[in-house]
Amino acid sequence: MKHIALALFTLGASAANAACYADYKAKQDDPLRLHYGVAEINGACTADNAENELASRLENGGWVLLTVMSVFDENGLEDKRDSAGEFYLRF
């Protein structure tokens, strides 16, 4: 029974440390500029957490977050590199 508990604990710890990413859309005004980007997210891998993190990061860079499109692990990361261009893991 101890071995099962240890295995479950280890599995849970690994999942908690898994990388999390979000793809999003952001804008700047005057003149209007839009961008699509991908960012690594710390903490819970949820859209709400990604929105909170990205809003402040983007604001510091002069951008306004429009929407978090999705959150995903490293398996979906490489597929989005070309679409994100210069905003791939920038924020």
Verbal overview:
The structure is a single chain. The protein is of the alpha+beta class. It has one domain (19-87). 36% of the residues lie in helices and 27% in strands. The chain has 3 helices and 3 strands, in the order H-E-E-H-E-H. It has helices at 2-16, 47-60, 81-84; strands at 21-28, 33-40, 64-72. It has a 3-stranded antiparallel β-sheet with strand order 2-1-3. The longest helix is centred in the N-terminal third of the chain and has 15 residues, at 2-16. It is globular, with a radius of gyration of 16 Å. This is DUF4177 domain-containing protein. It comes from Marivivens niveibacter. Keywords: Signal. Residues 1-18 form the signal peptide.
Global Rg: 16 Å
**Alpha plus pi helix count:** 3
Q: Please give the share of residues in helix.
A: 25-40%
Mean pLDDT: 88
Task: Tally the structural domains.
Answer: 1
Catalogue the unreliable spans. Answer: 5-14
Q: What is the chains' assembly state? A: single chain
Cα(first) to Cα(last) distance is 44 Å
SSE pattern, N- to C-terminal? HEEHEH
Structural class: alpha+beta
Summarize this structure as a short list of keywords or feature phrases.
alpha+beta; 3 helices; signal; DUF4177 domain-containing protein; globular
SSE topology:
Layout: H1 2-16, E1 21-28, E2 33-40, H2 47-60, E3 64-72, H3 81-84
Organism: Marivivens niveibacter
Protein name: DUF4177 domain-containing protein
Signal peptide: 1-18
